[in-house]
Amino acid sequence: MKPLSALISTALLGSATVAAAQEAADLEPLVITGTRMEQPITETGSTVYVITREELERHRFDFLVDALARVPGVTINQNGAFGGQSSVRIRGAASTQTLVLVDGVPVNDPSSPGGGFNFARLDPENVERVEILMGPQSTLWGTDAIGGVVSITTRRPGAGFEGDVFAEYGSFNTLRAGASLSVGGEGGDFRIGINGIDSDGISKADEDNGNSEDDAYDSLSLNAAGGLNFGAAGRLDVSLLYTEADTEFDSFVFGDQGNVGDGDELSETEELTANLRYRVDALGGRLSNLFMIGYSDIDRSNFSDGQPSFSATGERWIYRYQGNFELTEQHRLTFGAERDDTEANGEDVAIDGLFGVYEYRPTDAFTLTAGLRRDDHDVYGSETTGRVGAAYNPNGQVTLRGSWGEGFKAPTLFQTTFFCCGAEAPNPNLLPEISEGFDLGVDYRTADGRGQVSLTWFDIETENQIDFSFALGGYENISIAESSGIEISGRYEATDWLALTADYAYVDAEDGAGSPLVRVPENTADVGLDFVPDGPFSGTLLVRYNDSEPDPNGEVDSWVRVDLSARYTLSRNAEIFGRIENLLDEDYQQILGYGTPDLSGYLGFRYRF
Fold this sequence. Notes:
single chain, mainly beta, 22-stranded antiparallel barrel, five-stranded mixed β-sheet
């Protein structure tokens, strides 16, 4: 039997852990694409965590946000399960300062006040891979990348003809099902997948506070991707991800815990992300050219007691050229230009950007990357950001790495147009938020390939943070935020069929006055056991810990949650899978006043052909 590292992903365990496991299994080293130039993970210099398709299938997550919760330094806050607003904070930065990409297209909601992204509706069935780039990354990706980047790659066609169908049923009358079909050949390929979830849900407002009304959730997602091969003339690719969802939620009730209680509220949302890419090589393959048009759109309508209460629309067009030029074996250059056109609720704004990233490898053991970017905002003028990363691999067991970078976030359309409370106009003096951060890390892999550990120290400072002021009647730059800490991740394969994983993060996040930042726990950790013995059965036990954290309305207590997932292979094509969540029936909250599911279970069947 192959060692466990050849059978399952270790992607959540640090910037070099995956590469170590794959090298031990004689596989190709994992290549990171979110850094703009394809690099083995041991050469990026930055801290990068990767969630692979194998990881998602092993844990059987219903929502992608549950997989992100395992990443050290990432904080998840959700105001109620099954479709509740889900935010992702990286290293203490605000959730609105996390840039989210789907197939390279920014999908942050331009119609929301802070321009953040709601992860609640992302179904992992549509996802092939996730890369999380920690720290400021605006040199690579422009605005919004203050704390980091979550880069999501959707499912792609395979070779030949293949497909699958699955169905899952469980607690809270939850039904999840889907099907996909893929075909590929020399001339091109195509894949389409459709899946959905329907659940009675639980009360968004915690039932322990007397809230007994369940808040239902149902969604339908369509993922399509395909391409045509033109030989030396290049390849044309298209991909699309569409989701529509109805989410029931609860009302603002002043005085209740978290100011939330039972109510008849409904949100209807449609989201679309699509892109068209053409790639062609020149100069004997030394120069790769990518031309891309990307589009994202969101349409939200809220109802209260059956009557319309709020609506918002937003869309974003991305026009991008990127070139990757291999000057020599030691020198590579990535360069490009892009335009970002954003519109929300009748207002629009544009940003033009130019960027370049240079890689120098004087020896096989040392890699240095440096980048520079210039963005021109049609309201706020120009912003220049830089980035440097270095990685040193003295041998196959050790990687030393470090990076420094800058980030910025332009004020959103809402922040530049909204005013109230006696103000006569929006604040004309808003400035972009800016950040500067660095990290230093070391990765160690045992000689036999069975063990690895990663340690990272980071520090980020953000200035000109934007917040709402009732006194001003609009938005203003009032805050400074600082965060620093450590991230530790490790893995040890006790046998060919049993492995132990562990992740820990300490984040010290404060504002300029020295007060802790809200919804950022100081300590988070998880421990997992992966069982992959010979035979049809495999499983994973996961224990997660979240420290107490400040909330705008009080404090959220610390909690521990235990989950168990398993799979039983019936044949080469068929399997039964299931999971038990919150095995110890922990009573906990992620946001003050909002409930989470009690002990619950799910059982499913999948057939591949």
